[in-house]
Amino acid sequence: MKNRKRLYTVIISIIVLIGFLATSLIGYFVARTSISQRLQQEMLPLTSDNIYSEIQRDLLHPLVISSLMANDVFVFDWVNDGEKEPEKMESYLSQIQKKYNTITAFFVSNKTKNYYHPSGVLKQVSEDNKADAWYFQAKNSNQPYQINIDRDTAEPSRLSIFVNYRVIDKKGNFIGVIGVGLSLLVVEELIENYQQRYGREIYFIDRQGQVMLQSSKYSKELHIQNKEGLDKVFLRILTTPSSSFSFDTINGSTIYLNSRLVPEFDWYLIVEQVNDPATEKVENALIINILVSSAISLVVLFILHLASRGYQGRLETMATKDKLTGATNRQMFDSFFTQAVARSKRRNESLSVVLIDIDHFKQVNDNYGHQYGDYVLTTVAGIMNQHIREEDVLCRWGGEEFLLMLQDCSKNEAIRVVNNLREAIAIHHFDYTGKKLQITVSAGVAEYQQSEAMNQLIARADISLYQAKNDGRNCVR
């Protein structure tokens, strides 16, 4: 009757706790999903839209200037007059540059292929020169203008935004390309502004994924294939005009990313955010809910305990197995050892114990994390269980140490068994989440002597284990 009441108490408490936990977890995951979707579908695209709108606004002024230049009667008359007195065109471009505060102004004649600049005729464009491809693309375009980012012919070390406007005379004949240049600093300042305002990483990449513009806080990996996690979505970014998604990195962070093509530059604008502060608040709320749920469950358990008319409140939860490895725990080994000694005396049988230690286990934890360490412990215990008999006892002695008790087994036979076990572990490939290691163990064997205490026997096995480690590990002594 007492056991039945105790069982009912436990069942009711579990139901209450599960109900609270389920409610908390459902609320947590719903809120987290909602926040993630809002960040992906609204907040990052909105940042991207704002930046794009400001870029278009900044381009509007040079577009208007270039349009006025392309329709200026002076340009038509000067070209029709045979491009005499080049200094007139140079003076005209210089006035445009000063009046509108542009970094450059230019005109390329279709007839002479001369590149006119405020400082003079800089060169003649040629289809054989890759640097002049922009001119022939504008010439063959169906659009009135093209925008490209290129090195300034007057200052090759400087990247600038150029508005290349087609000049068409009254008869519809193409007579050249004219326009102005805009400093990339305008866009760089825009990136810096948004970076500081929202704490998001903002940069531009070209069609090959090469980073072309970034903030001063941008990480040093200048190719998105080199950024952790982004290699997985590299092709998706470069093959779609606009996309939003998230992915997890190796270190457990979540990166939210929005990309969109900026046709004026033929570049992709990338907006990234690592984790979301709102998610952290939801996680804190979940922890609080779980603590409250646990507290309420304990209250329910206490009330049921009082209702049971003073039944023993202290729970005797003496577990016989180690939770991680499934091996016998240290508390239970005393009982098994006492039984084994009595059996060996009664049947005049040998009894041996083996202390086994995983070599360099601390390095496994330090280099690969405790999850990998837990995986190694569990796997080693599984291999050992496969190589021992049903009557033998495997105990997790502590940390990475195991104690093996072999009944009806002499010292020499124990050494043979443990060597087989050691070799099986050494040839096993430990593969966890793509990280592969080879693990070895060292072991110390001791045979029970008449009337010997358990701690004395284990101490002798420990001395043998110490000798195995001094002898280079991966051996039995």
TrEMBL record:
Protein name: diguanylate cyclase
Entry GO terms, CC: plasma membrane
Topology in the lipid bilayer: Multi-pass membrane protein
Localization in the cell: Cell membrane
Gene Ontology terms: biological process: cell adhesion involved in single-species biofilm formation; negative regulation of bacterial-type flagellum-dependent cell motility
MF terms in GO: diguanylate cyclase activity
Pfam families membership: dCache_1, GGDEF
Enzyme class: transferase
Keywords: Cell membrane, Membrane, Transmembrane, Transmembrane helix
Cofactor: Mg(2+)
TM segment ranges: 7-31, 286-307
Residue intervals of the GGDEF domain: 349-477
Entry's EC annotation: 2.7.7.65
